[in-house]
Amino acid sequence: MWAFAIYDRKEDYLTLCVDRLSKKPLYYYLKEGVFIFSSEMKGIFTHNIKKRIDVNAIEIFMTGGIVPAPLTFLKDIRKMEAGTYLVYKKGKYQIKKYYFPKKYKPEYNMHKLIQEGKAYLEDATRIRLRADVEIAATLSGGYDSTAIVGFMKKCTEKKINTYNTSIKGKLDETKYARIAARFYNTIHHNRYCTYGNFESLMKDFSFYFDDLQDDGAIFSAFLLSENISKKTKVALGGDGGDEVFGGYRFHNIAYIVERLKMIPRFITTFTSWFVWGRAKELLKIVLADKSDFFSFQYDKNEFKSTGYIAWRKEQMKNLLRYSNGSIANAVALSGIFSTPMANRYVLKTDKTAMRYGLEMRSPFLDYRILEFSQKIPNKYKARITKNKILLKEIIRDLIPSELLKRRKQGFAPPVTGRKILHKEKKEIIEGIVILKKISNELKTYFSSKNIESIPYKYYLRIYLFKKWWDYWIND
Question: Most buried pick, 46, 73, 118, 430, via CB within 10 A?
Fold first, then answer.
């Protein structure tokens, strides 16, 4: 991972570059002959620039909870897209892309894929153990983080410190993390995340997330990074396992859609007249253009900006070129190069870790593994009800057997939309007022609803935006 700038004094030009997934963000500004760049937006703010709001970026954020590159909330600040470099010379710049996904060429020999996958993951882990300090690991008890600790054990004889954060209740993963910790004989550290932690972290949240995103797990990630940083400054994590090996529900849906698209269109159209609910929504995706896959993920009660839908459609069109027309593969690539990995998780990991001077490394995001994923047949990633089919075979002899039987569980946030509404109703109402003034699309949406009828997922999004606005715009 990298983000760097090189100035050629002789030829008088500047080059900026970010890694293949933009794990390290890089922002730039050009206005009236002034070019500024920084690893954080706040570095550009120190030059007293005029902050002009990008309405499209805010509408996209309110739809998907992210601000995809090259956008930011400000018109004159852009961020580098993954796998690109920028050349600035004589008051102008050009951006070029240097990294593209490999073409989808499935290999159906399961044994060969298992051996190749093991070799890549072990080597990706081994080279990330190079450091002058002790290297720790995150360990939630899920497949991905557990597998990485397993490969670490194969590569080193040193005792490993492992860490997780959780919340008490139904979503508490602590027992699974402890099963893995005992299995690998690690020194395990657990920390519970509470609403009180959320309130404390919100005091300077907007300072660290000047480029805003909505993810309740950010607050657990802050605590996790803080805990690790007390012992060491380098750690390995399981980011990327779901995206590379097919761990999300959208992988299952894409697999189903691809199969249903093989049925003659007139049969699907006829069937769609006699079904309702989720079945009808699924058939809408089947009958639509492949690039419109993500256009149907929002119901009529949710906000869906035209900018967000256009962005997802354009991304899918581009990724279908590397997928030999396979919608399931294009959707999988989208999970890596559009969202949630690019534009969301890499930014979350970088910002939450670097707050405490911690370097997080992700073996699953090794470029060789990203390219290996294009050799994995769709049916070895996800089927109707199964996920990570190949990965489970790769790690079957590496992780505790009881963990292989677990269903997927995401990081549990310490805050829910319902609780935010209860605790911060005034802030949310004020946030809605601001959003209605900024955007006609949002004005139309919010004017048709009372605050209790807004879907819960928007409450945290509105609250974080209001805090960002107060910190950076009304400062």
Answer: 73
